[in-house]
Amino acid sequence: MTSSANMALSAYEDISEEDECDLQDWQLPLAYMKKRHVERVEGSRAVTQTWRMKERMKTVSVALVLCLNVGVDPPDVIKPSPCARQECWIDPLSMSPQKALEAIGANLQKQYERWQPRARYKQSLDPTVEEVKKLCSSLRRNAKEERVLFHYNGHGVPRPTVNGEIWVFNKSYTQYIPLSIYDLQTWMGSPSIFVYDCSNAGVILDSFKQFAAQREQEIELAKINAQSYPGATQMPLPPSMKNCIQLAACGPKQLLPMNPELPADLFTSCLTTPIKIALRWFVHQRGGKLVPSITEDLIEKIPGRLNDRRTPLGELNWIFTAITDTIAWNTLPRELFQKLFRQDLLVASLFRNFLLAERIMRSYNCTPLSSPRLPPTYQHPMWQAWDLAVDHCLSQLPSIVDDGAAYRHSPFFADQLTAFQVWLTMGNERRDPPEQLPIVLQVLLSQVHRLRALDLLGRFLDLGPWAVSLALSVGIFPYVLKLLQSSARELRPLLVFIWAKILAVDSSCQADLVKDNGHKYFLSVLADPYMPSEHRTMAAFVLAVIVNDYANGQEACLQGNLIAICLEQLNDAHHLLRQWLAICLGRIWTNFDAARWCGVRDSAHEKLYILLNDPVPEVRAAAVFALGCFIGNCSERTDHANTIDQGVGMKLTELAQDGAVIVRKELVVALHQLVLQFESNFASIALHFIEEERQREQSQSVMGAAVTPGGWTVVVGGSPSSSSGLQPMNSPSRSSSSASLSSMGSTEGLEKSPAVGDKLDRSIKRVSSSSSVSSLGFAYNNVYATVWRTLVQIVQEPHSEVSEAANTVVNAINLKATMNTQPKFMRDKRLTHSAPSSPTNSMARLPTDKVDRERSTDSPDAAQLQLPHEIARPLAIRPGEQPPPSRPPNPAPIGSAIPHSSTFQSKRRLFDKGPNSTYDDDDDVPSPPTVLITTEFCEWSSRYFAQSVMKFPEEHDPQSPVHYDREWRFIRNARVRREAREMQKRAVSMRLDDQIFINRNKGNPTVVKFHPYDPHMAVADKDGISIWNWDEGARTNYFRNNNVINSRITALDFINAHDITLLLSGSDDGAVRIWREYGWDGECEPELVTAWQAISDLLPSTRGSGLVVDWEQESGMLLASGDVRIIRVWDTQKEKKLQDIPTGADSCVTSLVSDSVGRSLLIAGCGDGSVRLFDRRLAPNECRVMTLREHTGWVVKVFLQKGSEGNIISASVGGDLKFWDPRFSESVKTIQTSQGLASFDVHPQAEIFACGSANQFISLYTLNGENISTIKYHDGFMGQRIGPISCLAFHPHWVHLAAGSTDCFLSVYGERKR
Description:
Blueprint (H helix, E strand, L loop, with lengths): L2 H11 L21 H4 L20 E8 L30 H17 L6 E6 L3 H15 L3 E7 L11 E5 L6 E5 H8 L3 E6 L3 H28 L15 E5 L17 H7 L1 H13 L9 H4 L12 H20 L2 H8 L3 H18 L6 E3 L10 H22 L8 H15 L10 H7 L6 H12 L3 H10 L2 H7 L8 H14 L4 H6 L3 H8 L6 H14 L4 H9 L2 H7 L6 H15 L3 H9 L2 H5 L8 H14 L8 H14 L8 H17 L1 H24 L1 E4 L5 E4 L9 E2 L55 H13 L4 H20 L28 H8 L4 H5 L42 E3 L8 E3 L16 H10 L14 H25 L8 E7 L6 E4 L6 E4 L3 E6 L4 E7 L8 E7 L6 E6 L3 E6 L10 E7 L13 E6 L4 E6 L3 E6 L4 E7 L6 E6 L6 E6 L4 E5 L8 E5 L6 E6 L7 E5 L3 E5 L6 E6 L4 E6 L5 E6 L3 E6 L4 E6 L12 E6 L6 E5 L3 E6 L4
Parallel strand pairs: 1-2, 1-3, 3-6, 6-7
Antiparallel strand pairs: 4-5, 7-8, 9-10, 10-11, 12-13, 14-41, 15-16, 16-17, 17-18, 19-20, 20-21, 21-22, 23-24, 24-25, 25-26, 27-28, 28-29, 29-30, 31-32, 32-33, 33-34, 35-36, 36-37, 37-38, 39-40, 40-41
Pfam families: HEAT (PF02985), Raptor_N (PF14538), WD40 (PF00400)
GO biological process, one term: cellular response to amino acid stimulus
Protein name: RPTOR protein
């Protein structure tokens, strides 16, 4: 048992029955623990698949060389009498020698033809050297690069010599003539297979190896000579013998068996007639024991045919094939198994039969050899299964032959499937592979066992990619491909599951499916309304793989009506099906215009809009992906196409504030597709936005302006784009290529500056008339301006991956816009008059001194063009200065692919003379290359099918380490709650003035939060978070929150604090970040789980509360507000905004609290002193049910008591504490504390509260108003150091109080130890 299990059990011993009610942590939902949060959204690493043979080979020619010399025994072999005489099951002495020789040759050819009927066979009976040479050369010439087989029977000639020679005859048959293996190699070439059936056959293998090595040396020497003497006449290179296979009947010093019960060509019989020889050998080995009445004559009467599996003989052959395949697969290395058993049908048959030859011939002290060498297999346990199958068949033979009894089929395959099923119960990657896997492949051929075999195969493939690779390596692919031709409905779920698993690991199978029309099978499954959603999901995945980057697959599926089938099911209840339908649509549209227009006719884009509001983030991301592919076709533009694409782009901009990172990533990619289609329009928009920012800078430099601590610009005297006098400003950009979003503050009143005139527009390339840029005018609310503002907004977002992607798009367009703008005077005849559509700013401002310097120059362009800082702006020539080069180099922006020395184009299209008019222009600049933005969302989604979907989740397995760890944490939680209860009872009498922890924080503490169960707390300063172990007095980690410049952290909370804790941080720019492994143990670097803009469009105010949040673990809801006039409710499970509740106040929200039990009451404290109550069950405009106005100043905090009383407690900066009954509009009790209240907190369990003052003291009270103690600053060596209080927080359970002060000191106060 694991240590975690022991700790859990020991902890149980200390928990009494009365504390079992505390163990309700099991029911609490976990937030941000989905796969998209715990793993990177990227595809699996590509694994090279070795199952598919690089080249399939075929043995096309067979040379049968028989040196028998019937009637004359060779001189070096003394044969006893009687001895083995049969050759190819013919007794040569039963007829004349010549007829016997011809009959044996004919029989041998028939035996080989059973394994390879289409090969070209040539017999050479008792040949001479010249005949062998002629035969081999002819076969090699005709075979070209295919394999040739050379079968040599040397029973009538002497044994091979150690010099590497075999024997043939002279023309008169009076002499034995040696034939060198070296010569045979030359004639046969490569690839070839050699079969040697003669005594001492192992000598040939040794000689063959030596000669092959000699040839390799000759080849290397010839290559060296060719390089040294290129002009010399070169001799032809000798053929390499690397790709040659050899089978030898025995070892170098062994004689063939001469037992008269056996045929003389025992080795050949094993290779070509395995069942016949196996049955005879079985009878001789075991006769008189199990089946005494079986004779050789009776064996010949076994009914059936070898190729009919329903008959006894055919079933035995089937079992034999399965067993030999299984032995080979479990014994041989994978690469060797593929080469010998999957590359060539004849070679595979010979090697299967070679395993039998080894078993039989070893029983007669003869060891067959092969090259490549195989490990010994004659004692493999599967041979016992073969013996049992033979026993089962032969035991029925007498009754079948004599009485005509029906044959009872062997239980072999059923038993092997059972063994495979047993393996699956405990199977995993660390165990040896199941040896029955090749048998499962054979069983797929049987209708009797097929259903069960497919079920078990699917369960095996579900174990993971390693299992799929094993199944493919054993040769499962052609079998499951052929089964797609079956019309049996019961096979559909199994085949769809199996194919989903295969394609999730190896997508290259898409070509095989389309070639065999397999895609039609999955189209019929997907269109079947009676098929369960899970199986239709797998069919959609298979089709998505088929159409992925494969034109033939796209065309085939389009013809199969895939688009209409997908669109009909977009509202299915199964979220995975919706997701893969959208991905499938996106992939079939990619670079396939015919499919896109088919979608247009079906209003596919409008039907996909429904999925943009789907509760599942993956579905929303898939819908955005599909719409991005829909508008991303690079075909010829038309007015209709432009209208559709612009409508889709406008719809997509609504997702800019989506809470899921994967959705916003796909959004950037989709909008980038639109940008690529209308680059010229967006370049015009970019320039106008840059100019608008320049004008705003000029106006602000003239008008009085002040910046509030919250980052809001208060403009005195009006604004060119706003009549309110208050100009909302977002925080400045985090990157050099980003910009302030101040230009987005207004969408009305934009007027083109006459100072800019046509000079801004004069060098912008003209777009096609279909885009109707002139009709767009200068309104902010057109498509291009809206999309551009959305992209610039995303540049500011808190998640770096999304921000960087948007930044790349914005930089590319700004670069194109500025490079297309001529930064010097142009002739009047080259000025253009078309106007860009709308302005924005997506680049950071230039340094002030540079701006001022350039504004003071005499160059109109320098004065009027606000260029991003990545593009060097030409300066005016001052007196005494040297003129700059005519073409100053333009440094490329970060992340762009533009070199510093770009090649300039010599011609440019004139804007005012049509798209085809050009003129010479030495000063023109090149167009930057297109940068493509991509994600791996679809590849990551595919990993679902590569992983196990049947496996019981580990956290739900009561015996798993994960479960034990959770159990230990929950018991720890219960113990903390139980022990803290005793302290809570004494809280009203505790002075709580013992400083149990004090340390200096890295920055001024603004927020402090205790972890409920671990002895650590999170402390936020302006832009970083410290993790302190208050029990040990040490800081365990500090990390940056990565919030934007001039923003500060205003909120902290622990998510899933009862289990695997995440840390939530919120900053006053409205961004929320969730951190994992935030390092309180000091072992891991913090990892950003997710980040999003919880609140946008923050309002200007003289004093900002920043971002205020309230986290509900029970419901998974996050409430967010702050310097806005709404309360936004986020569902973290859906990562989606649920509703915006108007506060009705003209001030910011300073504190939020909700009823986690009833989940309907929501309380907000406001900066104007009001406390507002909302009922979330009502409509947003009606849900404010009460406004409490007794406070006269800023509400520091509101608190909702739990339990039967349920009073609301609120405190304001004036020091007045109000108790409210939610049923009444007047307070039920007021407690007056000291003025200048800076921080306030109420203990959630104990009846005490604390007030922190800027006057360097902390007061503690009971809820009855009784002052317990006051912690003040004391001088002296032993005195407590306490500065002006900036934040306070009680521990959720222990009666501990944490206090941060403006002098960066952090203290924790507790009960004085006695």
